[in-house]
Amino acid sequence: MNSEIPPPTGVSFAGSSGEKIPLMNRRRQVLDYFTRMFGNSSSGSEETAKDGYVEFGNIGEATSGRTLGPFAGVFAPVCLSMFSAMLFLRVGFVVGNAGLIETLFQFAIAYTIIVFTVMSVCAISTNGAVEGGGAYFMISRTLGPELGGSIGTLFFLANIVSSALCLTGCVEGLIDNFGESGYLVPVDSYLLKDGHWWRFTYTSSLNFLNLIICLIGATLFAKTTVIIFAIVVICLVSSIISFFLKSPFQIEVPAANIFVNQTNTTAMLNYTGFSLTTFTENLGPSFGRDYTSNNIAVTFSSVFGVLFCGVTGILAGANMSGNLKNPSYSIPRGTLGGVLFTFISYITLSILAAATCSRDLLQENYVFLMPINIWPPFTSIGILTATFSASLSCLIGSSRVLEALAKDCIYGRLLQFVNYGVWRSNPVAAVLFSWLLVQLILFIGSLNLIAQLNSILFLLAYVALNLTCLGLDLTSAPNFRPSFKYFSAWTCSLGLMGSVIMMFVINPFYASTSFGLCLLLILLLHFFSPCEATEWGSISQALIFHQVRKYLLLLDPRKNHIKFWRPQMLLMVANPRSSCPTITFINDLKKSGLFVLGHVKVDKAETNLDYTDKAISSWLTLVDHVKVKAFVELTVANSVRDGLHHLIRLSGMGAMKPNTVVMGFYDDKVPLDYFTRLDSVYKTSAFQGITTNEEKFPLRLPNEEKHLSASEFVSMICDIFQMHKNICICRHFDLYNKTDIVKNIKYKYIDVWPVNFFGPSMNDAYDTSSLFMLQLSCIIKMIAVYKKHTLRVHLLNTIDIQSQRMQLKQLLSTLRIKATIHEVTEWSQIDLRTLDSDRNTYISRVNKLIKNQCAETAICFVYLPMPKEIRGSDLQNVSYLNSLTDLTNNLPPTVLVHGVSAVTSTTL
């Protein structure tokens, strides 16, 4: 694709052909654009206008090899894959053991699951352009890389197992035709020897032939699918006609049934022709033994496992999506047509077999159709063509799925060899790897045993497809509007539940293992996959949005209770380069509550309407880099104070809105750049630009004027108070080092000073601000880093110190806060009368007192008093800020706290 050609105005693209784009009365311009991008698109492309949109089916089909229609590309492959080894080799096994009634019941279950799954496939495939990879492409582009990649891997394995299954069936047909007592060789002669390793040799030879065809003629095979399908249909019709033309006679036990031949060498099996007695005897179940699997007992689950492998080919058409002219048109029609045709064929064959063949014939001769055919080679040809073509189709399909996994970089370098091993659009390396895996599966040997594993893996793929469609439907995503309308959440749910239930009915061990493997792959891909396919879209995000919206509406602020209070923080960040420690600390302090990073760009809002769109990606990258769980809110305002008002009002949603505003302290310190400091744990080059102008979050220069004045800063504190939000002001967090706190043994305490030093009172320790401080200190103590630290509450030495101590101890006990009470005896040396007469001296002495107690303190929580005048003059505001500055000078990382509402509860 030529990335240098810009799209026409008013047109947006999501990256794949088939995307719907606005018409905008500019159809010609859009067509010209696509012609320049993809070449001449006049051949094979389809254009339909609907609801004001133009939908481009598959631009450039002629040049991309998209030549197949619904019949040759979908219907015929689906029928061949569904017939595979079941049609001519296992109908007798199913009817003979399960009986006709139970067989029809099992077919009803299987086709119910299949039809519901097909509905899901049709819905997904008609909702956009389906590219190479078929079912994997549909699942991964909806469920996302992790779940899509894991299901895609298991779907790849399902095709591998299916190819081995069909090869085993093909060899079984060859042995019954050309082996000992074969139907197409003279009596007492044979062309093929029989035995486990002989069969392995034959299947390996056929597998090697498949490899050669895939390497040199896979495209030719796709073109001859219709011819192969016609041959299979002719053979099927001949078998059906033979039931009406063949007279009753006896059939020998096949040589492969060594268990009967060893005990009764003269045993003969009866073909009765149409007989009411035979039909009645074959109605009920009579489970026997499977002579192809060491004579193991047959059960309902093993019969269903074999039966279901005969209906697992519904995705054969979807696997050919890369070769279809119009996948959205061909896949639904071809797949549904194939399902209906195979259902009629299986039911017809089952009823005719039950009406004409004795139970012994059905149980002891799985190729009974051959001797009763008016011309036995018809059945032989049907077996060989159906099984071999299906095995080849599965090998091709599996290699294409593997190629798609490699192109998506799901497993990173692990599958890189697949991308390198492509010759003339043929994924040679993928074909070789798939062939090798098929060769390993062939060691199992028994068709019936492979069939169970095959059914489990395909059912898992059907679970994923139904889950995909269900998720899309439940999320009510506006862009999910498939042209196929015959589906609903109920059909998806029934297909999903039916698939899961039948997986465990067939084989609980295989089912549990497959789910466990899928979960393991999901976890591995989540943590280690280099794939960053965010452009795919993930249903998880749509489901999360759907559920969050629902629960946000249920989260009624009128029903809030204090005992479930949690901090919901809005941290005002001037520049994240100098604020990383503060961001990390507040992330710990939020205690699973809401955390919002707020930033104000001081400028004219009218000229910066797109600021949020331009800057948000850098801020989200910052959140990932600092590893915090936070949202980001940005605004443009004429002043920082105005921007603060915007953010307080607009941050959060519903009942999840910030109840606490956190700011850094206003001082003259030179801001540090934690992204470039060599000793910083936040060091990164992610935000560095090639030039100074391109650098993200540029720091204010030392001589550059601040956007915020001292008086405005104090006014912001007052505004937060008047907007009824708790206030936290962080100072000295340039000294905060979380790693150092863990390693350095000198840090022993988290200090709380529940006293208003600007106007001390006996009740300070019990007012709202002090209780809020205690709550915050208790929260920070819950963090693993601080669990070894002692929470220390300072009590000033007053006249009634013992009474004060008992009251504070009782308060801590009531609040379930484990803390020590530390009496500050030096307080008695401070003359409170100097608070008004010589305020600076008083504040300096208090600062010294606090500093003397903080030699081993990691974090210090200090009471934040409000200014005496909420709307004071500039002079009053500056005086108040100077007092705060003097109070907290040279302290460890300090949080000044003021609470406005109750946050603690003593009720159960």
TrEMBL record:
One of its GO terms (biological process) is chloride ion homeostasis. Residues 590-668 form the SLC12A transporter C-terminal domain. GO terms for cellular component: membrane. Residues 79-570 form the Amino acid permease/ SLC12A domain. One of its GO terms (molecular function) is potassium:chloride symporter activity. Its main location: membrane. It is found in: Membrane. It holds the Pfam family SLC12. The chain crosses the membrane at residues 68-89, 109-130, 151-175, 200-221, 226-245, 296-316, 336-355, 375-397, 428-450, 456-474, 486-504, 510-528. The keyword Cytoplasm does not apply. Keywords: Membrane, Transmembrane, Transmembrane helix, Transport. The keyword Lyase does not apply. It is a multi-pass membrane protein. Belongs to the SLC12A transporter family. PANTHER family: GH08340P, SOLUTE CARRIER FAMILY 12, CATION COTRANSPORTERS. This is Solute carrier family 12 member 9. It comes from Aphis gossypii.
